[in-house]
Predict the structure.
Amino acid sequence: MLGILAIVAVVLYLMSMVTVLVIPVVLALFPATLLRPITNALRKVKVPDALSSLLAILIAVGAIAGVIGAMVPLVVNQIPELTESATEGIDEIEAWLDDEPFGLQVGGLSDLVEMAQDQLGDLGEYAGQAAGAAFAAFEALIGFLLLFVVLFFYLKDGKRLRDGFVATMPRRGRARARQSLDQAWETLGKYFRGQLLVAFVDAVFIGVGLLILDVPLALPLAVLIFFGGLFPIVGAVTTGALAVLVALADGGLTTGLIVLGLVLAVQQLESNVLEPIILGRAIHLHPLVVLLSITAGSLLLGILGAFLAVPVAAITARIVDDVRTGPPPPEIEEAVAEDSPPDPEQQAEQEAAISAAGADSPSDAGSSSRD
């Protein structure tokens, strides 16, 4: 367990040193695992590789843009109402805690909420004055562009990229390298698809509960819960707490407690039923390893590190298990070595030998004719 955590920490630390270059290259792997079936289906109907890859990316971008476009107006329209009810909800909490049996003096919470609202109102002004805002925006733009370019080539030339990488390995290690890469890709795909399914189930159950309770921002909160579900443990707790706070601010203590019970019930369903069934075959990690991996990732790369920590740990564990099982059978090693492109040095030697043979042949022909 400690070995896996150490490898995860080293990988994430190295990624943090060259984030602009490495992060898009790594992040592009996740949508590639989802879009690969689309490109395969398009290729079966004779769509060229480049066009099928481009169409798959456009479909994904269109779907995401549609969701965001539908959610933003809902959030903007309901924020004023929610802001007004937030102070009332906090006042109810203060009064409830001040009464028996608690007898706690927590006055001033509503003042803190109003202060936070004022600070959030000035956030845009502060951000505009930040010296590095323009550079950060430019860096993010470069990262997004690089991500789409890398994703395109993953979809178009994925197998060729893999085979080219395998060809750089010693011939005896090519079968092991290809096997490790294929298993890493399989683990990543299973993990990401499984996590998306778990997050979707969480969002549906909690979202339906919020709609039944007439909690404002129910649909935007469901979308946030879906994306939060991609961050195991941390994301579910954070987005669930946000849903409880919104319900508390709008509907009072009773509604807040009902939503809290709903969130806890769904999270128990996720951890005890959904994850063992859906993710059990993709990752075999102890919950402590998951938690520590997320913590290490958060410290090194923030939210992005929390997102990448578990798949990195799962792939590491899969490769470690593969190494323990020993090398592939000799016939597989020979087949992979024959299928892989030759080593550059070997190819140069062969070309030099062919050239030398070609240079010698005329003289030999001339001598034979003189004889």
About this structure: The radius of gyration is 28 Å. Residues 342-347, 361-371 have pLDDT under 50 and may be disordered.
